[in-house]
Amino acid sequence: MGILEVKNVNKRFGGLQALGDVNLSVAENTCHAIIGPNGAGKSTLLNCLVGKLIPDTGSVVFDGNSVLGRTPFEINQMGISRVFQTPEIFTDLSVLENMMIPILAKRDGSFRMHAIENMMSEKDVLDQAESMLVDMNMADKRNMHAASMSRGDKRRLEIGMCLSQQPRLLLLDEPTAGMARADTNNTIDLLKQIKDERDITIAIIEHDMHVVFSLADRITVLAQGSPLVEDDPENIKGNPKVREAYLGETA
Ligand SMILES: Nc1ncnc2c1ncn2[C@@H]1O[C@H](COP(=O)(O)OP(=O)(O)OP(=O)(O)O)[C@@H](O)[C@H]1O
């Protein structure tokens, strides 16, 4: 039994079957990649896991509890954190202030913007944020304006902000989209480090096969809304069905 169990999930948008009978089991403390061509249903599936979409039928169970019917905030409190394609950071604030926000939100169960004014007097929150910046190799950037960071560093900060909430499942939605190769490689190294050092499960959607094969322990290929195959990376690489569906090659 995986930490995340998706069973017979269906989702239609009008006449379009975006997800058809999706089954997915993500084992605890592994990195599970979900790949597939454009329009295969990857983002729709991810949205069903975090409460942004509700499946028409089927179940989504995290650590023995259904996520269906819960708000994105409640699902986050259950231990699922999501990193979006575009970094979701506060560009007007410093790197340190950004890191403090999710820690405050987790502690208080909500976050109000005026809390920023008194944030620096919160010694425990400050210590946790500083410590996470050290873990992310960003301590030297603590006073930088978040807006002035590179795309790779913004993503590093955002991943750190997610981790500061101590999630058990980290969902990554194309974490290296739009990055230069050097930033992509730094992000791969960071995610490998997170995998090795933390008690965490990672599910990743990614188009860049270099990223997928560097990180994934298990891969599910979606095609036209349904799982085509699930296997280990080595077997996925050589699978003619995958090449045909995903790479557009004939077997
Ligand atoms: N809100 C929506 N309303 C109508 N159709 C939608 C909606 N969201 C997604 N779709 C459609 O559902 C299908 C699956 O889309 P989805 O974004 O999940 O695919 P994807 O695999 O994530 O694609 P990509 O790799 O291009 O991001 C597509 O045909 C898309 O146009």
UniProtKB/TrEMBL annotation:
Xref: Gene3D superfamilies: P-loop containing nucleotide triphosphate hydrolases
InterPro entries in alphabetical order: AAA+_ATPase (IPR003593), ABC_AA/LPS_Transport (IPR051120), ABC_transporter-like_ATP-bd (IPR003439), P-loop_NTPase (IPR027417)
Key words, A-Z: ATP-binding, Nucleotide-binding, Transport
CDD domains: ABC_Mj1267_LivG_branched (cd03219)
A GO CC term attached to the entry: plasma membrane
PANTHER family for this protein: CONSERVED COMPONENT OF ABC TRANSPORTER FOR NATURAL AMINO ACIDS-RELATED, HIGH-AFFINITY BRANCHED-CHAIN AMINO ACID TRANSPORT ATP-BINDING PROTEIN
Sequence ranges assigned to domain ABC transporter in this UniProt record: 4-249
Record keyword Transport present: yes
Protein's UniProt name: ABC transporter ATP-binding protein
Gene Ontology molecular function: ATP binding; ATP hydrolysis activity
